Amino acid sequence: MPTQREVDEAALAQQVDKIIEGVRARDIEALKRCYATDVVSFDVEPPLQHVGVDAKMRNWAKVFTFFTEVTYELRELTLTVGDEVAFGHGFGRLRGTLQNGTATNGMWVRVTFCYRKIDGTWLITHDQASVPFDMSTGRGVADLEP
Question: Fewest beta carbons within 10 Å, which of 46, 57, 63, 94?
Fold first, then answer.
C-alpha cells in the first residue's frame, strides 16, 4: 500500500502532466484547473507579477496567439512534498510553430512551481519563470540548455 507521500507525489506528477497536455491542446480551461484562484505568477513577461488565475490565463492565451502548434517541455523537475505544501524546480521550454509558419525550438528558462493542497487537490499557488542574464550587458542569455 502506498504511503501518503507517494500518493501526493503521484498526484503532483499528474498535475504537471496536465499543464503539459493543456499547453499542447491550447486548452485554457484545462490549464485553469491547475492553478489556485489567487495564484501569483512571476512570468518572463512584464509586469513583475501577474495576480490571480485570470491574469495567469491571459498569459497562456497570449502564448497561443504566437503559436499555431506549441509544446511545453519540462526537464529535471525535482519535487519536494510536504503534507499541505509542495514545490518543484527545473527547466521549461515552449517550442513549436509560430503563426508565420516558422518552427522554433524556443529557449530554456528556469521554472519554479509552488503548490498547496486545497480541498484535497494540489494547485499551483505560485510559479516563476526566469531567464539568466549577462551581468556585464544586462541582457538575457537565451542559448543555455540543461
Answer: 46
